[in-house]
Amino acid sequence: MAKILMKGNEAIAEAALKAGATNYFCYPITPQTEVAEYLSRRMPEVGGVFLQGESELAVANMLFGASSTGKRVFTTSSSPGISLMQEAISYMAGAQLPVVIVNIMRGGPGLGGILPAQSDYFQATKAGGHGDYRVLVLAPSTIQEAVDLMMLAFHLADKYRNPVMMIGDGMIGQMMEPVEFPEKYKEPPLPPKTWAATGAKGRKPIIIKSLYLDPNLLEDNAWTLHDKYEQMKKEEVRFERYKVSAKNRILLVAYGTMARICQTAIDELEKKRISVGLFRPISLFPFPEKQIYQEAGKKNIGDVLVIEMSMAQMYEDVDRAVRGQKQVSFFGRTGGIVPSPEDVVEQIEKLIDKRKPKAKKKKA
What we know:
Rossmann fold; alpha/beta; 5-stranded mixed β-sheet; 8-stranded mixed β-sheet
């Protein structure tokens, strides 16, 4: 397979086509509009449907309708656009509909700015809409990983009959890297979509809904969803370790492109004979709680440092996962300001200095 130099947004779009996506609905918003621009040309070439809605609200409800027919459907947007879709995402989760949603994040709250940020972590992982529901959340750190996870996302959406969200900051969407696509996409077999509304010839009509006026039926549906999320926690936790060893004194936790910056910082510290490891969550829900607990609990680890492009959102999940075994600290920038490797090195050196025993004052 030959590698192709592609912008992140365009690579994500092509990956969706390779995964068999046939319907794409969108509303333009920076920094992900190139996905729509690319698919306005490519989707008709593969016999699919491209449609720009009049708003994000309209787009999200188009997703509900198209996914009800069993088609592979998806959308891409950015932070405030995803906010507008939350009601329909809750409906899709309640109706158990598979759909893929990509959020190329920008700064907030409000309209914020168009520069990269990771400040939609809560929105993605804690269910931004109403009711007892979750979406499976994936976070790539490279363009190649965005391609791979995009194709996986459609499989997971169908496997669990649930919305799947892939989130990346604006750098993932805008930067260019070499990527490769499989000549023929292969995925594990899935059961037939007997639940889909494909016409009621020769069978009873199928009604797809999230409305249950009987409270007992509504609670039954909530328990069905809960059991599905528990299955995700058992089967879909994904993470990566970088230079984690018994020599580490500090464990970094970061995701997405922030993790790449941390890797550069770790390499620089290695030249100074300072050993630091990185734990990178790839699935943000389900979150790798057990694995972080195990890593933080090792005797050689003195501190856990969470680094984000947000105001300590993932920090809360890491702190809960560590369960008081070690001190968990936070460093982050937001609003579109991206910490440099030098910033990360500085924070690590500060932690090391705090751990150094203070010299005793001599008595006069």
